[in-house]
Amino acid sequence: MKPPPFEYHAPRDLGQALSTLAEVRGKVLAGGQSLIPMLNMRLAAPEHLVDINRVPELAVMEAAPDGVRIGAAVRHAEVERAGVHPLLVRALKLVAHPVIRNRGTVVGSLAHADPAAELPAVLAVLGGSVRLARAGAPERDVGAAEFFVGPMESAVQEGELAVSAYFPALGPRTGGAFEEVTRRHGDYALAGVCAVVTLGEDGAIEAARLACIGVGPVPVVVDVTGSPDDAARIVSERTEPDGDVHASAAYRRHLVGVLAERALRNATREAQARGA
């Protein structure tokens, strides 16, 4: 199928991109790995398409000791090769296939807000944020807890552009893990769990957080600090998966519990290694 008719805009700097978005009602094109199929299947029919790939300010990735900020035009593969954040890199290796990661963007995946996507879970479990910009207004940072509003729905408002995302670094004696089950490699997960574990100086778990995908309308964040040994039950009780042709709700609920235990175990091992 072919996409419905639209007017194409290709701004050359951030100011021009924001002024264009203020003037027209349309969609932002970055990697296009989600948007273009939606256009071709007529699931989206914007009157305008604003291509941000020629905006140099959005193609910047800045790594610092406290975390990494990734611009809206930075590709999955660029972040993966740079190795700027171990948990983010681990999640990126699970995203589709290399040809998709060569074009898809990190911020685009967050703005798309697919409840089965990996990157929203990483942002959520780390307590990261997305920076939004609008013509004539100051930029605003929206935390992950408020950014993901519902399935395929984020906090980006009409006329706003998600210009970057910030992923906090893993602290001392802290490890991360990402576990998921898919029907085939590269498919969206039937269920997945991203875990971050921090150990105390005595080697005991000091903090443990999980973000679950595929089992709710947004990433489901669960703090199991006080009861990591009971993570499977806690996660199973707090998630609300839907059933479909690929898996029943009961199977997904069981699966996310198993993955929670596995992710916690692997994140703890990494935390032990980082603290050695």
TrEMBL record:
It comes from Nonomuraea phyllanthi. Pfam families: CO_deh_flav_C, FAD_binding_5. PANTHER family: XANTHINE DEHYDROGENASE SUBUNIT C-RELATED. One of its GO terms (molecular function) is FAD binding. This is Xanthine dehydrogenase family protein subunit M. The lineage of its organism: Bacteria, Bacillati, Actinomycetota, Actinomycetes, Streptosporangiales. Keywords: FAD, Flavoprotein, Oxidoreductase. It comes from the Bacteria. InterPro entries: CO_DH_flav_C (IPR005107), CO_DH_flav_C_dom_sf (IPR036683), Diverse_Substr_Oxidored (IPR051312), FAD-bd_PCMH (IPR016166), FAD-bd_PCMH-like_sf (IPR036318), FAD-bd_PCMH_sub1 (IPR016167), FAD-bd_PCMH_sub2 (IPR016169), Mopterin_DH_FAD-bd (IPR002346). Gene3D superfamilies: 3.30.465.10, CO dehydrogenase flavoprotein, C-terminal domain, Uridine Diphospho-n-acetylenolpyruvylglucosamine Reductase, domain 2. The keyword Flavoprotein applies.
